Amino acid sequence: MKRLCAASALIASLASPSFADDKITFQLDWLPGGDKAPIYVCVQEGFCKDAGFDVTIASGRGSSEAITKLATGVAQFGSAGLDGVMAAKATEKVPVEAIMSIYNMPPDAFFTTKDKGIAAIADVKGKKVVTSPFTSSNVLLPLILKANGLSDSDITLTKADPGALGPLMFTGQQDVAIAWLTNVSRYTNQAKEAGKELVVLPWAEAGLETYSAALVTNSDYASANPELTKRFVAAFKKSLEFAQANPDKAAADVVAMVPELTVDDVKAMWEDTSKLIFNDMTEKLGLGSLDATRVASTWARVAEAQGLDPESLDPETAINRSYLPQ
Fold this sequence. Notes:
This protein is α/β, with parallel strands linked by helices. The protein has 2 domains: 22-105 and 210-323, Periplasmic binding protein-like II (D-Maltodextrin-Binding Protein, domain 2, 3-Layer(aba) Sandwich); 108-206, 3-Layer(aba) Sandwich (D-Maltodextrin-Binding Protein, domain 2). 44% of the residues lie in helices and 16% in strands. It has helices at residues 2-15, 37-44, 47-50, 63-71, 82-92, 137-147, 165-170, 184-193, 219-224, 226-245, 247-257, 263-274, 280-285, 292-306; strands at 22-27, 53-58, 77-81, 96-101, 108-113, 128-131, 156-159, 176-180, 198-202, 213-218. α6 links the parallel β6 (128-131) and β7. α5 (82-92) crosses α14 (292-306) and α11 crosses α12 (263-274). InterPro entries: NMT1/THI5 (IPR027939), SsuA/THI5 (IPR015168). Residues 37-250 form the SsuA/THI5-like domain.
């Protein structure tokens, strides 16, 4: 009888299939850092594993590259600016879509120092402004100037390496730097070292009501794998919530996979970034939601900034809410 039971158990184990985790690539829109903490949390805390995923994280060099890799199937999921997704769909009809918002407000801002006497965006008139060559903020700059009664000719714009923006401003060679709110802590520390006090003027507070970074996927892949896509969105959402509640652990998770970074720097950047994710808009609309009014506003700003026909895209075709947890 014991032998019969053992044989039966063996047959049952052989008959039961063993499924491997789904292998996916997550494409970052930039280099690893505190702003990318959630996907590292998903891997290190086992949320991705529990959802059935074996994840490879790929570094990026901008939303355009991330969108291209998603469109061509090199990656299945990734982060990219919703503005970039919309522009790509309007001009190239790429098979990508945003399936969850990450930043529900834009990260763009003017950074300056208190001694410059710049207390509002309108005060940048006549000032020297430095920006990096490839930031998406450059596309939106004319809009934010126009919204505040200014034009391109009202400022002197210089482009420099991203790492030089702070030093150029803090040494007085430039009055204002265009940077992202994800880097407030880094600029604050640089300001202190220079004996200065940092002043931050977010563009969101001056009429730029748009979504920014989003969780993006290949449309064909998602439609062919709807349950898998829902599982990944749920795991990513859980990772966002974990990182918000456990910033020290989130920072440690990033450094565990990217050891050249430091926990302190990663934590500071994540805490800056989290304010773009968890805020009053989150309380109102829900984490990850894609509000129709804000989606439409985002497309209106993108079309105006890039000189695109507003009728060239129905902004709802750039998103898909069906994978969000109910």
